[in-house]
Amino acid sequence: MIPELGRFALVLALILSGLQAVFGIVGAGRSDERWMAAVRPAVAGQFVLVSTAIGALIYAFVTFDFSVFYVASNSNSALPTFYRVAAVWGAHEGSLLLWAWILAAWTLAVAALSRQLPASFASRVMGVLGIVSFGFFLFMLCTSDPFVRVPMDRIPADGRDLNPVLQDPALAIHPPLLYTGYVGFAVAFAFACAAMLEGKLDQVWARWTRPWTTFAWCFLSVGIALGSWWAYYELGWGGYWFWDPVENASFMPWLVGTALIHSLAVTEKRGLFKSWTLLLAILAFSLSLLGTFLVRSGVLVSVHSFAADPSRGMFILGFLVVMIGGALTLYAWRARELKSPAGFEGTSRDAFLLYNNIFLVIAAIVVFIGTLAPLVNDALGMRAISVGPKWFTITFPVIMLPLLALVAIGIHAAWKRGRLADSRNRIVAGCAIALLAGLLVVYGAYGPGKFLSVVGIVCGIWVIVSSLFDPVDRIRRKLSLSRAVIGMTIAHLGLGVGVIAISTVESYTVERDVALGPGESLSMGRYSYRFDSIGPVDGPNYEGVRAQITVLRDGRPVTVLHPEKRNYWVQRQTMTEAGIDSRWNTDLFVALGEDLGAGRWSVRAQLRPLVDYVWLAAAIMALGGALAATDRRYRTRSVASEAAVTAAEAT
Amino acid sequence: MTRFVLPIVVFVALAGVLFLGVRNSTNKGTMPSALLGKPAPNFELPALGKPGETVTLAQFAGKPFVLNVWATWCVACREEHQTLLDIASTKAVTLVGLDYKDKDPEALEWLQQFGNPYDHVAVDAEGRTAIDFGVYGAPETYFIDASGRVLYRHVGEMTPEVWRREFIPRIKGTKR
User: What residues make up the domain containing A140?
Assistant: First the structure.
């Protein structure tokens, strides 16, 4: 009964989201207050219904209802409760449901917090979100129903189990965070579409849109970092980023989203870049949609997705065409009417933010090309060319390093009229400090490394030093610091930390693949890894082996690592659990490879300096974003005072 | 004002490429196999429930056969089982089961409970032969002709329609 209730709730949610779209958009077009008044109840009702649906699926998982095909395919009676809940988003159908639920939650938040917006605008925003929801519900009900039953006489005694790769705490919470980020860009997208429908886009609009976009970006940052961290310790490859299509799919919206939050800043402060901001808002969400679907549809990673249903691919494409094509048509038609009032000089902050946008968008295009090239090749029937990690590792630093220098310089520029000469001292001082500190760190702590890494470390320090000048100066002069400025500073510090960490890891990682037997050891610099013993280990739904490896530094033991190799019973899949000791300046990493017989194993041992700071950097950036998005001006002002402020700023 | 129209133009072009990509993957029907038209990988596996006996590729020399990859843990295998029983009753071709990453007692119990459509069942406990065939997951079904070449691969559940449309013509073709 419960699964049928879930499906019924989805059908009702489909209808309500359709009404939400019609009442929201048509109602605003006809200025019909009664129609517009129906939008918020529709949003609330839709949220309740989607919650019912996802609740029904969770219930089916928790109660081992293997008569539901999706549960039978992704759960097992030996699966612990936590993973049974997480298994809801362990495959395509449930992921879509989670997506739809998060969208309903964001829409509810918009409905609750948009009362001070003009009624027609708020109702258009929710109307556009209604279209997105409608598309998702239709997609789910037509091609990806999570509530399909196994025929009565064929109900399996036990389930197929959740993919062991996904049986990990970080990966259990990674998709919800990532989706919250993706879906958050739907709000920015809806704001953009509403502005185009309204034919009006001003600084107030940017002020409404900014906090939503920044929050979405924070979630996306943390989500991506979690996924990367998971790949590091669970896949046993020992890296933090593999330029895998699935990773790239989440990275593209992040890059464009980063461009968008900076472009929005210019639109809010100066009323410039209006059409560009709109385009970025459309693009960020388009890439989120594309990302969700590329990962799940099997169009791109066809080898990674089992028996992808071709009808899904076509539906997805149709949906993309309607949503993105519709928004871009609207853009072609309406964006030209949005005039930017004033110009700016080539060395003003406005200009630097434009350069920042250009670099970020180019970076996104580079990732896009690298990710989709195999697909394009396939579509045009050309011979498969491989666009491996090499494409990215060569092109990416070339784009990113100039961007960092621009950040370090642009931070000092003033709005509208920037005279770099005014801040020459700061620029020169920052650069000098960075060069000195960078070279000191590089040659003092690590020794000569790759040229680009050294440049990266220097740039990272430069960004940190530069972003501290202004806040420190203000504190010294006992001036107040707004939360927005503190947030921005922290986010830029995070960027600097991340760049330093990535540059260091790229250049100074030590990696060895060797065969070791009990009692043997391997030395790497001042560290050595001693293989003590190996023995069996049993888990709730797997069995495996576990090694004990002692790490010594200068001959003294510093830690004991326990890498494992697990065999999950039901899916017959072997998983590696790396043994990792995270120290403040380096990660000691060891993973088991193959059993070579006679007690000997192939072992992958690594020293990765500063690798944890890559993920820490993402957390710092997200913290900065969250602070900036909760600045007082977004929280308290009413429409009237906003208008007054805008008027005052305009004069 | 081309700069406002440009995004939609680029998007339309991209959508066209995506369309071709999706259609291509549809045209391929299921998944292409690198083995199509090539000799089937050799195998010699224990026969299920018959200690000491083996099932080998060599024993089918000169005789076309259908290889069905299945397992007791696989939900879709349960789904296609009736279809396989129906196929077996027509005696159109030799049906060989490849019991993939499974446990023997459970597999025997399954065949006893639901009926055994297979003329031979090979046990691939480690999944090595499946890897040689490029099996992605159970169920999968291959048609191998009298000269030992792989002529067709079907990924996923076997249905009467797939059998009629893809397998029967090929089986008839090789007999002629």
Answer: 1-167
